[in-house]
Every structure is written in C-alpha cells, then in structure tokens.
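A student in our group prepared the protein record below, which I am reviewing. Thanks in advance; the entry in question is below.
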Amino acid sequence: RRERQRFVDKNGRCNVQHGNLGGESSRYLSDFFTTLVDLKWRWNLLIFLLTYTVAWLVMASMWWGIAYLRGDLQQAHGDSYSACVANVYNFPSAFLFFVETEATIGYGHRYITERCPEGIVLFLFQSLLGSVVDAFLIGCMFIKMSQPKKRAETLMFSRAAVISQRDAKLCLMFRVGNLRNSHMVSAQIRCKLIKSRQTPEGEFLPLDQCELDVGFGTGADQLFLVSPLTICHEINSESPFFCLSQRSLRSEQFEIVVILEGIVETTGMTCQARTSYTEDEVLWGHRFLPVMSLEDGFFRVDYSQFHATFEVPTPPYSVKE
C-alpha cells in the first residue's frame, strides 16, 4: 500500500503547519525569548553574531564620537594633554578600547580619564547594556544546548505494532527501549488513536483523537525502562478496536500516536519521545522476538532483534465477533 500522509512521523515530528495567523503572529514577538529558542541553530547563530557585531560597532562609534567632539583625535597625546580616553587616535583604536572594556581584558594602554564626564556616563551605559545582551543571548544559547530533544533519539520504538493473544486476550502491542545506561525517571507512556469519524449529528471530525488504555488503572503505563518493554493495549468492549478483525484491518485508515515522557536522570529535564503506527504497520497474528538473555552475572539486551516479529496462531475475528 502506498504511504499516506501521517499526522506524526516515525521520528516524532508533527506534520502540522500554522498558516493565516493574521494579527495573531504578534504573539510570537511578545514571547521573543521562546521564539528565539525555538529557531533553528543556523538562525540562532546568525542572530548571535549579528547582535554582537552591531552592538560592538555602535558602541565603538559612540566612543569615537566623544573623542571627535572633544578634539582628542586632532590633539597630540603627550604627557601634558588629558584626553577622554588615553591613546584613542581613530576608529580602530576606539573599537579596541570598547572590546577591552566589554571583555574586561584591560591591557592598560587605553583607559578612560576622570576629566571626561560624558565618557563615564557612556561607560556605565555600556556596562549595563553589555550585561543585558550577554544574559539574553548566552541564556538563550545555554537553554537551546541543554534541551533534551537529542535524548529522545536514544529512546527506541519498534517499527511495527502487533496484534495477538496474551493471557487469552486479544491485545495490541508495541515495543519501547532505552539505549542509554542512564534511566528515565518517572517514565510514562500514552497512546492516542487518530481516526476520522462522523458524529450522529452529521458532523465530520477529520482527526478525532481517542485515548488507548495501556494500563492506566493498573499502573502499567508507569515504566521502569531499564530494558526493552512491550506495551500492551487490551482490546475489549471499551477499546476503539472492539470491532477490528483481520479482514477489516485491510480497509481501515487510522494512526496510533505513542508518546513517551520522562525525566532525564542526568539533567533533571523532562524529555518526550513520539512515534506513530499507521494501519499498514500493524501486523495481525505476530509477536515480538525475545531480546533478553542471561549472561554471567548480568542480563544482555540484543537490539538486533528489537524490531523482529514472528507469526503465532491468532483468531482472525474481532473481539465483538
């Protein structure tokens, strides 16, 4: 079957774009810090470089302007002459003085004198503005680097989901795993069924969301994810798959969105990993191969068999039938 449009890709990216915002787009500017963090890395680096470059050039021009208005550029800087900033002769020297002051380098060759009140005011303004710019941009870069999105890439989901019997009950199952030795604290899993439907009143819902029970009442949705786990949804009278059979599965059109959330043990930040399964990625009458084996004093996980399944005898009928 041809690949159809997904609501959520296998890598967790949501295929939703917001358009025709009109005047609502101004809301992005009201929360400019979050907007800046959400930008791609190339735009973040460009804004970072442009902001510092423009700020440096503007402030260096102000120091050069003070020296020009006072006539320091035309005067000979001898021992008897007191300039606003010592040893500032042109724009490059004014730029170097600004960088030395901003970076607190202080080579000692250029320095501000006490006979320049406008220079003292500009120095204070430069210190305050530099602190604000540093806090904003460096804070933005730090938050972007510490985002736990990359941690989600080491959380695995099986490529396909399976339907087979477990404990004499028909179940929908898929597998999750953690590739790192660091644990996910308070890991929890949720499933959403995305399917179009029409209400009795005639309203058409193109992407209706329905919750799939993966053990809310029993606590099975709270995961101790130190080894690959098989998540199970029991198909019963309360399940939206109550009327699903092997034959009707071929004509159905739905998408199962899986959301795994937890706290990264090393950073304490919340991480979310997502994937989805369409109807052609649900295998009827299959079961996952075991991946755990007992070695000398420890358990070994064979991830080469993580996605592997095998067929098992399964009735082709729905639970309702």
